[in-house]
Design brief:
The structure holds two protein chains of two kinds. Chain A has helices at 9-19, 25-32, 36-48, 59-64, 77-89, 93-96, and strands at residues 52-56, 71-75. By secondary structure, chain A is mainly alpha-helical. Chain A has one domain (2-95): Orthogonal Bundle (Arc Repressor Mutant, subunit A). The chains are: A mainly alpha, B alpha+beta.
Chain lengths: 105, 497
């Protein structure tokens, strides 16, 4: 069961950041203060475990804004369950990254 | 304006990303590099908007790119783990069951697509009424050969019968048939007495038939194959007139595929009340209650005195075995294959020397369940694959297809069961993986001093399998040796459980 997966504090922070609306690697880095060498590998593992899912932004949107397309990440149903369980384990998670201050990037 | 130093930093950043990408698996490399280049672009823009010196910004970008090396390394490790899970899958019980399941699914799919198999699989559509028999001359062993003359049939029909309440005659002939548009072809035509289909029962009646008005000319029933091939499957052909030889006949119906199970293949059946019953053909009879009581086996000898009183002997052959479907043949072949199995392999699953490390009940139940699942899958494959092969070329029932099914069912069930037992004997009783790494142990010249043969090992470190090179009275069959926990350090990281 996904909710039974015990997450490290770092992984829980990344999930919390995604829940709060930070949906690509660099924004999660900025929000959590974690370095790129921690955030991206952690996201690979979370994706492998089926807690998050990645998808590419449409090329037409990126072309319109004259920038390269981004890869976005989204919590799966299992990821949401696991995050819920992790919040009980790490009660300060909500204070570190409050979801009510979420903003869609 | 980009300075030379700025260009140098960007060259380093791109170089780090490209170098790190070499660590990632080739299949994911393009997407990985695209993501990191995109992220770098956005990170750079973010840093530029925040201000600060160029030097600091570029250094932070290099630090950002160095994270890509860790990420690439992580990707590599995850891919290696996936590959090792594939290695664990290879040779496992799951792989065996998945392979058998895939084979079964493929055979089911083919069976669904082949019209011949579909026709064979639905015996209720062609099951004849109980008490329907074929009357054959006892001098002929082959019941697919016509042996009864029309004169004999006429003689029987004219006399009162105790054992039969109906008799029908048919013979097969190649005839030139001219269709409405003056297209002509040579067909296999069954010339039959009009009561033939009535005698055979409801299931043998044409599926597409017009009303039974008598237009004064003989009726002809088309086979589904001839109807589709010659008339494009059009229902408008019903009621039209075709010429069979020199005689006109009205198309009265179509007999669906696979329903005709009597000897002789046919493109059409000409039901002619006025036709002289000539030549040699087949007689079909329907037994009375008294006749059914006398029919104690599938083939019963009957004595019939004809007008010449030569006392010729006849067989009444029950047609029920022709219409019981392929399941009866298959079950008989499974029975024969199981009887023959000890001749091709030992049915023992080997000896055990587990001592105190005997596997628990759960493991033993798993092992027997696995064996049961393999046998069940194999026997199901042994039903459908012969049907697929036998009926691949024929669109309906044929004696050749039935014989092919008979032979293939036996071969697949016999050698399939042999494989099941051989495979089971090579699987670790604890984890059900196939044992590997065969090693020759001992010497034949010293076989009275120590055992010689092949030693195989469970890759997860549960057991060793000793197979004697030359069976002796003290080492006749293979033996399993359970490895205790002191061996575990040798197999660290390989145990999937």
């Amino acid at each position: 069961m996904a909710s039974e997966t015990k997450l490290s504090h770092t992984a829980a922070m990344i999930l919390q950041a995604m829940q709060a609306g930070f949906i690509y690697g660099f924004s999660i880095m900025e929000m959590t203060g974690l370095p790129s060498g921690t955030v991206y590998p952690a996201m690979r593992r979370l994706e492998r475990d089926g807690l998050i899912r990645s998808y590419w932004e449409k090329q037409s949107i990126a072309d319109a804004e004259q920038r390269p397309p981004r890869k976005y990440y989204r919590l799966t149903a299992g990821g949401k369950e696991t995050l819920e369980a992790s919040r009980k384990r790490y009660p300060l998670l909500d204070r570190l990254i409050p979801t009510e201050e979420a903003h869609q990037v | 304006m980009r300075t030379p130093a700025g260009a140098f930093y960007r060259w380093i950043q791109t170089g780090i990303l490209r170098g790190a990408s070499l660590l990632t698996p080739e299949s994911a490399r393009g997407e990985w590099l695209r993501e990191w280049q995109g992220e770098l672009w956005h990170a750079r823009r973010e840093t530029e908007t925040q201000g600060g010196t160029n030097e600091e910004a570029e250094r932070s970008m290099i630090a950002f790119c160095l994270g890509a090396v860790k990420d690439a390394h992580c990707m590599r490790k995850l891919a290696a783990k996936d590959a090792s899970s594939l290695v664990l899958f290879k040779g496992s019980a799951t792989q065996c069951l998945v392979s058998l399941g895939a084979m079964l699914a493929a055979s089911l799919l083919v069976a669904r697509l082949l019209p011949g198999v579909n026709a064979a699989l639905h015996p209720s559509q062609y099951r004849l009424e109980a008490g329907t028999v074929l009357i054959q001359n006892s001098q002929s062993e082959d019941d697919s050969r016509a042996t009864v003359t029309g004169a004999m049939f006429e003689d029987w029909r004219a006399r009162r019968q105790r054992y039969f309440d109906g008799l029908a005659f048919y013979r097969v002939a190649r005839e030139r048939v001219t269709e409405g548009g003056n297209r002509a072809g040579t067909w296999e035509v069954v010339h039959a007495t009009p009561n033939l289909f009535g005698l055979l029962g409801q299931t043998m009646r044409p599926a597409i038939a017009e009303n039974d008005e008598d237009f004064g000319i003989p009726k002809i029933i088309l086979s589904e194959t001839a109807w589709k091939r010659r008339f494009g499957g059009k229902e408008s052909v019903l009621g039209t007139t075709v010429r069979v030889g020199n005689r006109a006949a009205r198309v009265a119906g179509v007999l669906p595929l696979g329903r005709w199970r009597l000897p002789g293949s046919a493109d059409a059946w000409l039901l002619d009340p006025d036709a002289e019953v000539g030549g040699i053909g087949f007689v079909v009879g329907h037994l009375t209650a008294l006749g059914k009581a006398e029919m104690r086996s599938e083939r019963v000898e009957i004595s019939e005195s004809n007008s010449d009183d030569d006392g010729s002997s006849l067989w009444a052959i029950s047609l029920s075995e022709r219409t019981r479907g392929p399941l009866g043949i298959y079950l008989f072949m499974v029975f024969l294959a199981l009887l023959s199995l000890p001749a091709v392999t030992s049915v023992s699953l080997a000896e055990y020397s587990f001592s105190t490390h005997k596997p628990g009940w759960g493991r033993r139940v798993c092992r027997w369940s696995f064996l049961g699942a393999k046998i069940a899958l194999l026997l199901t494959i042994g039903y459908f694959v012969p049907l697929d092969l036998a009926y691949a070329q024929t669109a309906g029932y044929s004696v050749a297809a039935e014989n092919a099914q008979l032979f293939l069912s036996f071969v697949i069930c016999l050698f399939g069961m042999r494989w099941v037992f051989l495979d089971q004997r090579q699987r670790c009783p604890v984890c059900l993986r196939r044992v590997t790494h065969p090693a020759q142990v001992g010497q034949v010249s010293r076989m009275f001093l120590a055992w010689n043969g092949t030693e195989l090992m469970c890759a997860s470190g549960h057991t060793l399998l000793h197979v004697p090179g030359l069976p002796t009275s003290w080492f006749e069959t293979q033996r399993w040796l359970y490895l205790d926990t002191s061996w575990e350090f040798l197999f660290a990281g390989t145990n999937p459980s």
